[in-house]
Structure formats: structure tokens, C-alpha cells
Specification:
The chain is mainly beta and 446 residues long. The protein has four helices and 29 strands. About 3% of the residues have low confidence.
Length: 446
């Protein structure tokens, strides 16, 4: 197993460089002494022999070479496109927010069509003398699978996400959306499992060949991109509706025309005073219509809780006289059970959160977490705490916040804490599903 890495040489004192390698939660896995001169020599530009780790950490080895900061350290080809990486550093990233890790390079990608830079329409093609190539590259590059070589580049001179398609000896460039290195690709789907499992952020430092591997339509900002046809269409907007969150599609009509997103109506700066709605955009007609969300009956708590399963439970698609499908509220439905959600945006500090709850529910969370984990409930010890749960050497804290009626279960960032949070969350959700504690939820969650 070979892992790439990069580090700057900070000085020319002429001492041997020392490198420490860490994996997982280990403080230090291996140490190496690199016989590097104060000023790199010509032979340092070539790969060194493998150097064994200092005893007693056997089994690890390292080799190195020295490259200028402006040098290309990786080259990939996609049809006529050449994508070069000028790296600054390597790091672990967690694109799915669920504890998984990818080794990603932090640097700049140069996208070229043969020897010429494939620039989007209107981009500068001439630069001041002395400007280096790596200053005009892209931050992320995503492969679009299919019969024609196609890439999506964003960042750098591609300040707008740009679709590059090679066909007939030419490269066509189409602007997608204003973007940055955090450009997200949300699949437009009614499949709840795919909706939750999909990775939405590209991996930096290389051509991301798996993000769009499943053919279909994806929402990229305010655009819809179909990998099957390479068509780019705008998502219709409703000027009377705003959203406090990124408008992620949570459903699509059977004919593929209607895309459903969340929105809010109202002038108040507080979300509980605004009216939540569903906005359906017709991609063919370029029009929109809205449907209200009943906060209490539909157990609406916040935007992240909306997904295809929630949509299909409360709404259905009906074919109109014109043959088009329109979304409508179901004539009847059984209210969904109350439940919380685990926030995995930080893999080291997961939080189980129940929204729209009274302070009394915090006691339920503390008791059930202690019971499920075989722990002990303790009095609160910190600001805003309701209780603490001690499990072996670890301590989890239960908080209640009046704003939004939120109960949270959280712990310090030890490697064994995330599994504890997950187990406690499953146990509390199972108790909430019985309905015994429905009275501890507010009638209209904020």
C-alpha cells in the first residue's frame, strides 16, 4: 500500500530531514531520516532507494524526490485532454461527511487540450510576462463518463464551472454555474438510498472519475446537467421564494420535467416566522409553482430532514390533462414518527440532534443513551448542559437550546466516540418511534 505525500523544504541548514508518518488515530507510526543536503543536488531530483523506518517500527519504508514548487507531479489523460497537477500539499478529506477518508492533493490542476489551454468563453488567454502556468489552472476537474471525452472544470480561470466536450477535433465550452472548490453535484433522484449515499464534493488533486459515474441528471448550483445528453439547463426560479439553505432537489417527476426543492416565504429574519414551501420547477416550460408544507402534520423540523422518502410519504405526482405530471399533497397520510439525526459534517465530532423538542425531551435522550450504552447518567457540568452520560472512560454531554427547540448529544473527538453517538441515536430514535413521547415535541417545530 503506497500513500503519496508532499512537504515543503523549510531551510537549507544542511541537516538531515526527519519525517514522521501517522496513520489513523496513531500518534506516530514511523520515523525516517532522509539524507538530504542543505541544497538539493541533481540526484535528489530522481527517486531515492526505499529507506526503512527507524527501529523498532519495522514494515514501513519511504522513498523521496525533490521537485520545484511549479513542477507537475501527476499527469492524467482523458481523450485529447491533459490534466497536470501542481501540488502544494496532500491531506485526508472526508467528502461524504461520514468518516471515510480520501487522500487528496491540495494544488492546482492544469487542463489542456493537447498543448493549448482549454479556456472557457470570455476567459483571458494572454497573461503578463512571467506568469506561470499553474496560476491559470482549475481547482477541481470531474470526468463525465460517456461516448465523448468530457470534463467539468471549476475554479481558477474556470471561476464558473465549465463543461468541456471534445468532438470532431474541437473543444466546446459551456458555462455551468458560479463556483469555487466546494462546487457540489447533487443527483436528482427519487431513490432515497442514492440520495443519502451520494458523494457531492469532488476529490481535489486528480481527475475525479467516480463522482458522476452513475448516469443521470445532477443539480450543480442553479443548473441541471444531464450526463447522458450533456445538456445544461437552468433551474427555474421563483422570485417570491427564498431559501436559507442550499436548494438541494429532493424529488423529480416521472417524466423528468419537474424538480422539487425547498423554499421559504416571508419577510421575517427568523425561519420559524417564515412559511416553508416546496418549489417545483418545470425544466421544459421554465416555470414554477409551490405547495405549502404543513409543519405539524408533516413533522417538518428543518431543511436537512427533507429527502425523497419524506416527499413521497406526503405528496404524489398526478398526470394532468396536458400529459404533464404535477405534484400534489396526498389525500391522507399517517404522520411520520419523530426522530433525530446524526450530524456527520465533522467525522471526529458527530452530534445527534433532535429538533422541535421541549426541554423535557433532553432527559429522555440522556436516560435512553445511558441505557443503550450501558453507561451512567451524571449531573450537568458545563454551560447549557442538561446531563452527562459516562461510558467507560468517555463522557457524552446532553444539551438543550431554546432556539429551535434543539436537543443535542455530543462528545469529545476520541476515535471511539462516533460509534457511541451512532448507537445512542438508534436507541433514542427507536423510543421516539413508539409515540410515547410525542407530547414532548412542540406543535409547530421551529
Amino acid at each position: 500500500w503506497v500513500a503519496p505525500g508532499a512537504a515543503a523544504i523549510p531551510s537549507s541548514r544542511g541537516r538531515a530531514a526527519r519525517v514522521a508518518v501517522r496513520t489513523g488515530d496513531a500518534r506516530e507510526t514511523a520515523r525516517f531520516a532522509i539524507p538530504l543536503a542543505g541544497r538539493p543536488r541533481a540526484r535528489d531530483r530522481e527517486w531515492s532507494p526505499w529507506i526503512a523506518a527507524e527501529a523498532p517500527l519495522a514494515g514501513f519504508a519511504l522513498r523521496y524526490r525533490v521537485v520545484p514548487r511549479s513542477a507537475v507531479v501527476r499527469r492524467e489523460r482523458v481523450g485529447p485532454f491533459v490534466v497536470d497537477l501542481v501540488a502544494r500539499d496532500f491531506a485526508h478529506v472526508d467528502p461524504a461527511g461520514e468518516g471515510g477518508a480520501e487522500v487528496a492533493a491540495q494544488g492546482v490542476l492544469l487542463v489542456r487540450d493537447g498543448d493549448a489551454l482549454a479556456a472557457p468563453p470570455g476567459a483571458r488567454t494572454s497573461y503578463p510576462p512571467g506568469t506561470r502556468d499553474h496560476e491559470i489552472g482549475a481547482d477541481v476537474v470531474v470526468l463525465v463518463p460517456g461516448g465523448r471525452p468530457a470534463l467539468i472544470a471549476a475554479g481558477g480561470i474556470y471561476g464558473y464551472g465549465t463543461l468541456l466536450v471534445a468532438e470532431g477535433g474541437r473543444v466546446a465550452a459551456t458555462s455551468l454555474e458560479r463556483s469555487d472548490p466546494n462546487l457540489r453535484f447533487h443527483p436528482i433522484t427519487n431513490d432515497d438510498a442514492r440520495f443519502h449515499a451520494a458523494r457531492t464534493l469532488p476529490i481535489g488533486g486528480r481527475v475525479d472519475r467516480t463522482l458522476l459515474a452513475e448516469p443521470g441528471a445532477y443539480a450543480i448550483g442553479q443548473r441541471v446537467f444531464d450526463t447522458r445528453t450533456l445538456a445544461v439547463r437552468p433551474l427555474p426560479e421563483d422570485s417570491t421564494v427564498a431559501s436559507a439553505y442550499e436548494a438541494v432537489p429532493i424529488g423529480v417527476s416521472p417524466d423528468g420535467r419537474g424538480v422539487v426543492r425547498h423554499g421559504e416565504r416571508g419577510e421575517s429574519s427568523t425561519s420559524e416566522a417564515r412559511t416553508p414551501v416546496l418549489v417545483v420547477g418545470d425544466l421544459e416550460a421554465g416555470t414554477t409553482y409551490t405547495l405549502p408544507i404543513d409543519r405539524a402534520r408533516m413533522r417538518y423540523v428543518d431543511v436537512p430532514s427533507l429527502d425523497p422518502a419524506w416527499l413521497q410519504h406526503h405528496f404524489e405526482w398526478r398526470r394532468g390533462d396536458d400529459g404533464a405530471h404535477r405534484l400534489a399533497e396526498r389525500a391522507s397520510f399517517v404522520p411520520l414518527p419523530h426522530r433525530g439525526a446524526v450530524d456527520r459534517s465533522s467525522s471526529a465530532f458527530p452530534v445527534y440532534r433532535v429538533v422541535g423538542a421541549s426541554a423535557a425531551l433532553a432527559d429522555v435522550v440522556a436516560d435512553e443513551a445511558a441505557r443503550a450504552l450501558g453507561g451512567e447518567r451524571l449531573p450537568p457540568a458545563g454551560y447549557g448542559e442538561v446531563a452527562r452520560v459516562r461510558v467507560g472512560e468517555r463522557t457524552l454531554a446532553v444539551h438543550h437550546y431554546d432556539a429551535g427547540g434543539t436537543v443535542e448529544l455530543r462528545g469529545e473527538g476520541w476515535p471511539d466516540v462516533p460509534p457511541l453517538i451512532e448507537r445512542a441515536a438508534r436507541a433514542v430514535d427507536a423510543v421516539l418511534a413508539t409515540g410515547r413521547h410525542d407530547a414532548l415535541f412542540t406543535a409547530a417545530p421551529r
